[in-house]
Design goal:
2 domains; mainly alpha; binds protoporphyrin IX containing FE; metal-binding; Peroxidase, domain 2; 329 residues; lactoperoxidase activity; globular; 2 strands; secreted; 14 helices; Haem_peroxidase_sf; two-stranded antiparallel ribbon
């Protein structure tokens, strides 16, 4: 009987391994009812410590979800067997506030051990960071598992450069079923936070290899930027991504209309006719921006790889260290 059933059981196991977890709001209402408020408290405290933590935490959702789905792979530290996403081009010396996720995980492990995934903590924390910065609040879908591995190469192959132009970004986002409207609304996340001169200098001194600045930068703003980021200056100096960098609002779009976008990937959304209508709309309609942003974040949060997963006890390490042994110095 078992021999007859074996192929069927194997097939079933393969399908369930490849089936994404079904996500839903209130996933932890029975198993860890205090989870969402515990995460919110941690994010609130982190923002009091340093307001920029809101932006840095929210950014983690984008960088986690684009690379093999929202699976907490971004949070894994490197091991002798695995070079993870933290070292990738877009993340190294740039992603920050991992300790906020660690703090939330520690609180949740005390409340309900091995119940709430790190991947879900990222999603909750991103939502809370936006809401606590004056942006919209939305119900997040939960029930993700944490990945067993991470890949620097996958991140390098997927995450866009700040030099990207609108048509590149439109195509990239389309691969994730995200429309032009989603692209523009999600880029509105740059309503909060900062970027390094490293991400900007090409625009100021050698746009597209021309040896000239990007003509789309408004001259007064360009003067300000060249002062902040002189040629051969410190590339780690940071500038604000919009004129109200701790407040989640539609100022980012107003800035783009005036030629005051910080990154090339921001300003290109206004320069390009393919996305300009959405920039103009959101610059005049903050509620419309908020609705589109929530829609985009939910779609981003739905991305799943279908790979096997677990609930990690520590967001930086997989549970079975023999899979990816941790480096000990
Ligand atoms: C459309 C393509 C995008 C590109 C090319 C891009 C690129 C960048 C770059 C280069 C930085 C500054 C990094 C640095 O200089 O260290 C940055 C910061 C940031 N990004 Fe994006 N980004 C994009 C979309 C998104 C999306 C979809 C989100 C969130 C949903 C997001 C959230 C953020 C936030 C909040 C910051 C500020 C982080 C902080 O202050 O620590 N970005 N992004």
């Amino acid at each position: 009987m078992l021999t007859l059933l074996l192929p069927f059981l194997l097939l079933l196991a393969a399908i369930s391994a490849a089936t994404p977890w079904s996500l839903r709001p209130g996933f932890y209402s029975e198993t860890c009812p205090g989870a969402e408020s515990a995460v919110r408290e941690v994010v609130k405290k982190a923002m009091i410590r340093e307001p920029r933590n809101a932006a840095s935490v929210m950014r983690l959702q984008f960088h986690d979800c684009f690379v093999n789905g929202c699976d907490g792979s971004l949070l894994l530290d490197d091991t002798p067997n695995m070079v993870g996403e933290k070292l990738s081009l877009s993340n190294i010396n740039s992603l920050r506030s991992f300790e906020v996720i660690d703090e939330a995980k520690e609180a949740l492990e005390k409340m309900c051990p091995q119940t709430v995934s790190c991947a879900d903590i990222v999603i909750m924390a991103a939502r809370d960071a936006v809401a606590l910065s004056g942006g919209p609040y939305w119900k997040v879908k939960l029930g993700r598992k944490d990945s067993l591995t991470a890949s620097q190469e996958d991140s390098d192959n997927i995450m866009p450069s700040p030099r990207a132009n609108a048509s590149f970004l439109i195509n990239l986002f389309q691969r994730f079923n995200l429309s032009k409207k989603d692209l523009v609304a999600l880029s509105g996340s740059h309503s909060i936070g900062k970027a390094r001169c490293f991400s900007l200098v090409h625009r100021l001194y050698n746009q597209s290899g021309s040896g000239q600045p990007d003509p789309a930068i408004e001259p007064g703003f360009r003067q300000k930027l060249t002062k902040l980021c002189p040629r051969d200056g410190d590339q780690n100096v940071t500038g604000d991504l919009d004129a109200t960098p701790t407040w989640f609002d539609n100022q980012y779009f107003k800035d783009l209309v005036l030629g005051r976008g910080f990154l090339n990937s921001d300003q290109t959304l206004h320069t390009s006719a393919a996305t300009r209508e959405w920039v103009l709309k959101f610059s005049e309609d903050e509620d419309g921006f908020f609705d589109a942003f929530v829609e985009g974040m939910l779609k981003l949060g739905d991305l799943q790889s279908g790979r096997p997963g677990e609930i990690r006890r520590n967001c930086r390490v997989v549970n079975d260290p023999s899979v990816n042994p941790v480096v000990c110095f």
